[in-house]
Design goal:
Layout (H helix, E strand, L loop, with lengths): L10 E4 L3 E8 L2 E2 L16 E2 L2 H15 L3 E4 L8 H14 L4 E6 L6 H10 L1 E9 L3 H6 L6 H14 L2 E8 L6 H13 L4 E6 L7 H8 L5 E2 L15 E2 L5 H16 L2 H13 L4 H23 L13
Parallel strand pairs: 2-5, 5-6, 6-7, 7-8, 8-9
Antiparallel strand pairs: 1-2, 3-4, 10-11
Helix pairs in contact: 1-2, 2-3, 3-5, 6-8, 8-10
Length: 312
């Protein structure tokens, strides 16, 4: 019922332009993966017909004026032939629109990414979760670190904006595993990143683990107002308290978005005409944090503390 929405109020960022009118849709529903932090509502994946997908894109563009389409499939590239079929249909109709999707490193190939670039894809996001392979295994992610390195290298070569998300505070997370994630994020050809503190939602395997509290992860509260993933941690590990995880979240974002590589990437986009505060907010946060964190640490340094029940 798109006619019920004012599409002037629905905008997303395109790297070189800033905020533009956008629409969102699903072309499939479900995920066969079994990540421990996710609730598996739809184990069997249902796929929409590629022709009907592009029909809806074309109809929305005509009626709403949207020019950027966000695909909110769990993994748009799960079925390679179907993803290519959608791209081929977009190319055939010469729609001249742009697209964004979520994907997984183990579903990508250079051929597929080339086709997506040709169809108008400008960026894609992958859930990296951790730069430590043992942590990835604990999340039952089913991916390897070198798969991310290869996939992001392909994206960069094709001029696609690279985005990734990380989780802090999984079972048996340590100072070292978080440092591994920060180093990995900075080493990758990655220019946008989300960093979330693990929030174990009911129905997930990690919720059961955190409730039991005996396998490297403990849930600290059931106050839903605190389940924000940002700024507040509702979990602790065997060696990291909730304040430690909150500290590392800011440190991660400060170091990533404050790195020379990422700052220069955003500076180039600003000079090209992207003046969206929304888009540059993470970089502004990192710069401000870099300027103030030293003073803050001097007067009130963060003191790492072992979680309750783990000694002094």
């Amino acid at each position: 019922a798109r006619h019920l929405l004012d599409y002037e109020r629905y905008r997303s960022t395109e790297p070189g332009k800033g905020l533009i009118k956008t629409d969102s849709m699903e072309t499939s529903r479900g995920c066969p993966s079994r990540c421990t932090f996710c609730y598996h509502m739809h184990a069997k994946v249902r796929f929409r017909d590629p022709i009907k997908v592009v029909d809806e894109i074309e109809k929305s563009h005509r009626e709403t004026g949207a020019v950027l389409f966000n695909f909110f499939d769990d993994t748009f590239t799960l079925k390679k032939d179907r993803a290519i079929a959608i791209c081929d249909e977009i190319i055939k109709r010469d729609l001249n629109l742009t697209f964004y999707c979520f994907t997984r490193a183990d579903t990508l190939s250079k051929e597929l990414l080339e086709k997506m670039k040709q169809a108008g894809f400008i960026r894609m996001t992958m859930g990296i979760e951790s730069g430590n392979q043992e942590m990835l295994n604990r999340y039952n992610k089913g991916t390897k670190l070198d798969q991310y390195e290869r996939a992001y290298r392909w994206m960069t070569e094709l001029g696609l904006e690279t985005r990734g998300s990380f989780i802090l505070g999984g079972p048996f997370e340590t100072h070292q595993t978080i440092q591994d994630s920060i180093k990995f994020a900075k080493r990758l050809p990655l220019y946008r990143a989300g960093v979330n503190i693990l929030t174990p939602y009911p129905g997930t395997k990690l919720y059961d683990t955190a409730m039991k509290g005996d396998n490297g992860l403990r849930l600290l509260c059931n106050d839903w107002k605190e389940y924000r993933r940002w700024g507040t941690s509702v979990v602790e590990t065997d060696v990291l308290s909730s304040p430690d995880l909150e500290y590392y979240q800011k440190k991660f974002l400060r170091e990533f978005y404050g790195s020379v590589k990422v700052v220069f990437y955003h500076l180039k986009l600003f000079l090209k005409g992207n003046h969206s505060y929304y888009y540059f907010r993470p970089v502004i946060f990192a710069i401000v944090e870099r300027l103030t964190s030293g003073v803050r640490e001097f007067f009130r340094p963060h003191k790492f503390t072992l979680p309750a029940g783990k000694g002094e």
